[in-house]
Amino acid sequence: MSTLLERVKSAGVPRHVAIIMDGNGRWARARGLSRTAGHEAGARAAERLVRFIGHRLGIAYITLFAFSAENWGRPKAEVDFLLALLDRFIAEHLREFVDSGIRLRVVGDVSTLPITMQRTVAKAVETTRGGTNLNLTIALSYGGRQDITRACQRILADVAEGRLGAEDVSEEAIARRLDTAETPDPDLVIRTSGERRFSNFLLWQSAYAELYFTDVLWPDFSPADLVRAIDDFQKRERRFGAVAEVAG
Ligand code: IPE
Ligand code: IPE
Ligand code: MG
Fold it and tell me: What is the DSSP track for 41-80?
């Protein structure tokens, strides 16, 4: 991997990589383990990846889809386990995030999370505010449609209070009111586990993202898999609706 890693680094890594971390349940089932054991293995994969990116890659922004707005529909025991696991993940890595210059942000409807977890999140966001090495966003209770809906509500409130005129409603005005306002759009969206859908992830923000799908189940997703995804990304031509070359 090291030669590929060197090549990928010198070719310029994407600024923002967003990952739909899917396949924990299938990973566990294949081993005769409980789904919760799959989620624990998934958390270890996330830890491994964040460390690798922070130290080795030079990606500026990473977003991890950890719990969707629709995941509330899972059995309560699994929801409770997942939220407790994520709460612990953030709390236990706080010192490491600060020491590594990792700035944590959370997108999603934080108000739906257990109050203790809201405190963990608020403390981590505040404590890591000065981090400049890597911007890590965790999507919790996040849905793209809900994000856009909240932006509409914020716009209407601003219009009602005279801070914004109807003629000022632009793409930029909407983008500034999304949960991701402080973060550039993802350049590369990766989904593991063989599924090829967004499942309501960053819908607005991914308008021109490059998509990468792999059959690897999330707990098995390694730094080498990430390097392969970036290598694939670097071979693509992003046109943004324009023409590649103006021919004579
Ligand atoms: C991803 O793994 C974790 C979350 C969605 C929270 P899954 O739990 O969706 O695993 P599969 O898709 O059932 O294998
Ligand atoms: C998407 O995975 C959400 C996360 C990875 C957090 P799901 O497993 O919930 O998505 P579906 O249900 O297969 O679309
Ligand atoms: Mg899944």
Answer: HHHHHHHHHHHHIIIII--SEEEEEEEEGGGGGS-HHHHH
